[in-house]
Write a structure and sequence with these properties.
By secondary structure, this protein is of the alpha/beta class. It contains 15 helices and 10 strands. The strands form 3 sheets. A 6-stranded parallel beta sheet has the order 1-8-7-6-5-4, with helices on both faces. The chain has a two-stranded parallel ribbon with strand order 2-3. Strands 9-10 form a two-stranded antiparallel sheet. The model has no long low-confidence stretch (mean pLDDT 93).
């Protein structure tokens, strides 16, 4: 395959001791999308390229996409299902290759047309999942999303017949962006990986989003690696870390410091790939130049970071394992197990308003800056895993939501 394998690219970088850095950017116009990819490739760091799909395509409103393109209106991403395969190939020509893979990012609960379009254009790396792109982003029933993702996985696995090794990244470690305790993030990421494998995908990445405390995050990534080694030993997998997905620092020095901490966390935990954020995140969609600057800043921070040793065991691995085991006990088919787990509240995402989510769990940032359960609902966890004195008032919720923003904006910038 001329483009090379996404998983192999990341594995080669890891073997060389380099962290792969990656932006999240998409432009509606083919020329602008090509220019953005060229800038990332030319950044001078070990980077993967990204084509992020627009929001109309994400929800399947393809008529709105066509109307926007016909009217010359701007879109907030690349409408891959509306552009022809030949157009997308021209975007990639001379850029994508073994040393510069390109991943399509989309946010769709029902991504069959997106997957078909990227495969038709010669691409084979994408991301999401039946829970992680359903509960936070859509009103599609979980059962429908599970069926759609099963079909999409089969489309990807069929691409092996033309010599590709498709790669699929679970977004499970990023649920709601913030205030989802790490054990649930780890469990959903592993469960989606098992779903992918069941439907023929044998190269994947498991995600985790930086949260509020570096020690807790290190423990979470260690738990993710442990469970992946136990459950997914027969497939190619790596870990992808996301720079904090919640309310972002508003100052340039605060945003940069948070990005650097995420790169350091990646190196400390042996994480192979990092999705970056920029100094513009709190204000607007970043420019290409701002994305490139973030890639360089993350790579520089990673180059000076040191791998970490053992992490403290506060019970996070046991929590994540209990969640995974309880879900898998519900049905031999992983998709059916996921649907039943959501119905029974075994997988219940705090503050998620999706109609299928039980909505009985809550979480907060404690006085030490760690993310904790305040209510566990029907989660198959011991009752003492919730902090009994914690009460989620509006003021407490706001304090937790802005904890990272306030912490990093108050740090003194380097002179």
């Amino acid at each position: 395959m001329t483009g090379g394998s996404f998983g192999d690219f990341v594995a080669r970088a890891a073997a060389a001791g380099e962290l792969v850095v990656q932006p999240r950017m998409g432009m509606a116009g083919p020329a602008e999308m090509r220019s953005g990819l060229a800038a990332v490739r030319g950044a001078g760091v070990r980077a993967a390229g990204t084509i992020t799909v627009d929001s109309f395509t994400r929800v399947g409103d393809h008529r709105a996409v066509r109307r926007a393109l016909d009217a010359g209106a701007d879109l907030n991403g690349y409408p891959i299902a509306a552009h022809s395969p030949e157009t997308t190939r021209s975007v990639l020509d001379g850029l994508r290759g073994p040393d510069f893979p390109v991943q399509v990012r989309h946010g769709s609960a029902c991504p069959q047309k997106i997957v078909a379009a990227l495969l038709a254009a010669g691409l084979d790396a994408t991301e999401g999942g039946p829970l992680s792109y359903c509960l936070p982003y859509s009103r599609v029933p979980v059962a429908e999303s599970v069926r759609a993702w099963a079909e999409s996985c089969l489309l990807l696995s069929d691409a092996r017949e033309r010599g590709a090794r498709p790669h699929l990244e679970s977004f499970g470690g990023c649920m709601m962006g913030q205030l989802c305790p790490p054990s649930l993030l780890v469990a959903i990421s592993v469960l989606e990986g098992l779903f992918f494998r069941q439907h023929g995908v044998d190269s994947m990445s498991l995600s985790y989003a930086q949260q509020t405390d570096p020690e807790q995050d290190a423990e979470a990534v260690a738990a993710l690696r442990t469970l992946a080694a136990e459950h997914l030993s027969d497939v190619d997998w790596h870990v992808v870390l996301y720079t904090y997905m919640g309310v972002f620092p508003r100052t340039p020095h605060g945003a940069t410091a948070l990005l650097e901490r995420s790169a350091e966390l990646a190196v400390r935990t042996g994480t192979e790939r990092l999705i970056v954020k920029t100094t513009a995140e709190a204000h607007r969609i970043p420019t290409v130049a701002e994305n490139v600057a973030a890639l360089k800043a993350a790579a520089a921070a990673a180059a000076h970071a040191e791998p970490g040793g053992a992490v403290e065991d506060t019970g996070l691995l046991a929590e994540a394992r209990a969640l995974v085991d309880a879900v898998l006990d519900l049905a031999p088919d992983v998709g059916k197990a996921l649907v039943r787990a959501v119905e029974r509240g075994y997988l219940d995402v705090p503050y998620c308003l999706h109609q299928d989510n039980a909505g009985r769990t809550r979480a907060f940032v404690d006085g030490d800056g760690r993310l904790q359960w305040s209510r566990i609902g029907a989660l198959p966890l011991p009752a003492d895993r919730a902090v009994p004195a914690a009460r989620t008032t509006a003021d407490e919720l706001l304090r937790s939501l802005t904890h990272v923003e306030r912490t990093f904006d108050r740090t003194r910038p380097c002179s």
